[in-house]
Amino acid sequence: MIEIGARVDLAHPPHRLWRALTDRELLARWFADVDAGPGGRLLLHTAGLPGFDAAVDAEVVESRAPESLVLRCDEAGRRSRLSCAVVGTAEGCRLTVTETLEQGAWPAGLRADRERHHEQALTVRLPAMLDWLAFREVDLRRDEGTATAELPLLPAYRPPGRGRRRVLVWTAGAVVAVLVGGAVAVWALLPDPPQRSAGLDPLPPPTVAATTSRPPRASGPATPGRSVTAATARPSRSASPRASRTPAPVTPQPGVRARYETASTRLFGWTGEVVLDNTGDGPAEGWTVVVTLAASGTVTGASGADWRQDGETVTFTGTPVPAGRSRTIRFDVRDADPLSRSPRGCTVDGEPCAGL
After folding, report:
1. pTM over 0.70
2. In a domain, 182, yes or no
3. Residues spanned by the domain of 44
């Protein structure tokens, strides 16, 4: 039997974790969309996710809240047993997930991708979901006698003239700013609400007070071969003139083209893909893909290339692309702007990417 295992310590009580494991709407936010099937069975829409090549037909064979959940899974003829064990700790709880293949075989690449998917789901998306749930459980109106899971709306600030009201608005604004500031980081990793489950109302998004975003810095392409003239040159500090340095123009790889696509979106974040196509006769070596994000964007991970981020610019490099072949670069972006869904620019060796 082949086994895949993952374990994570969480700063949340077992009952909150159990809700994230068994609520179909919440499960869709950190693992996969789930639909109820006949006879109490579940259909996990995992086709296309890393490590999955088909949807998973699952049956719950054990459920002991909030300690143990066991599923018997069928994925295109491969049968496995998925176990989730929850143990309380001094800091919160510990979740151990084990998937044991009982019939069939996982291809080597598929199994490696599946292990990475489980690891990322448990260590990144699940903690973010639990933090989000904890924030929704805060009773912000307990003095009014009724509990609420949403942030109160603040009235628009008005100029001086109503001194007492001004103090109240500023005080409420400070409280919400502290709460929202701590929550933005965890909301950035959450996926979009599920779309397949019929009859389920999506969870209402938390109400966030509007903030003024920092305007993006202007960035224009450099003009190769531009010389310094007497009208535009800056005065030299020394008596002896110095020759101007002209940047060498970027030489595009013959036959290399790039296509950009936003693969998925979520609350405060998105995933982008750049596909490199080499239509030339030889391998494309030394290629460079440059993606320009909004000022609030940060790359949290990437596959298919080496990468580095400097401010709003993310540079991808990698091994040669064989002639007639393609390579896909996939990267996750966390962005505090909920309306941001794509980069501001994309080039390969200075040439614009298609799709933007």
Report:
1. no
2. no
3. 2-136
